[in-house]
Design a protein that fits this description.
By secondary structure, the protein is mainly α. It has one domain: Rossmann fold, CATH 3.40.50.510. Helices cover 50% and strands 10% of the residues. It contains 5 helices and 4 strands, in the order βαβαβαβαα. It has a two-stranded parallel ribbon. A two-stranded parallel ribbon has the order 3-4. It is globular, with a radius of gyration of 13 Å. The model has no long low-confidence stretch (mean pLDDT 94).
Length: 116
């Protein structure tokens, strides 16, 4: 998860841990100077720190997507980036992962949340 505000990312992680405690969740939030923004280095580190080989990636606003795309290009992991409503997308994916839903079913559910 990538958010422009660290507290948003931390709060969403806390919410997800309540419904999907077995799902590895990492996040990057805020800029390097603890302000509003995103950091490629933090996004890249969140990907590295996530123990999963396949990652479902979510973001809140434009530059977060840009930093995710750059980090995805430099990663060896399989990463799917979703252009969906941030909180709903993360919650939906984590809940389904916790229930051992196949990735194809998760992607199908997330398709309904695509921001158009």
């Amino acid at each position: 998860m990538v958010s422009h505000v660290e507290a948003i990312a931390q709060g969403l992680k806390q919410l997800i841990e309540q419904v999907a405690g077995d799902v590895p969740v990492t996040f990057a939030g805020g800029s390097e100077d603890d302000g509003v923004g995103t950091s490629f280095e933090a996004v890249n580190q969140a990907i590295i720190d996530n123990e999963a080989d396949e990652i479902l990636a979510f973001y809140d606003l434009g530059s977060a997507k840009m930093n995710l795309e750059l980090a995805i290009e430099s990663s060896d992991k399989s990463i799917d980036l979703f252009d969906v409503a941030f909180i709903e997308g993360v919650y939906t994916a984590a809940s389904l992962l916790q229930a051992d839903a196949p990735t194809s079913a998760i992607k199908e559910e997330l398709d309904q949340l695509i921001v158009k």
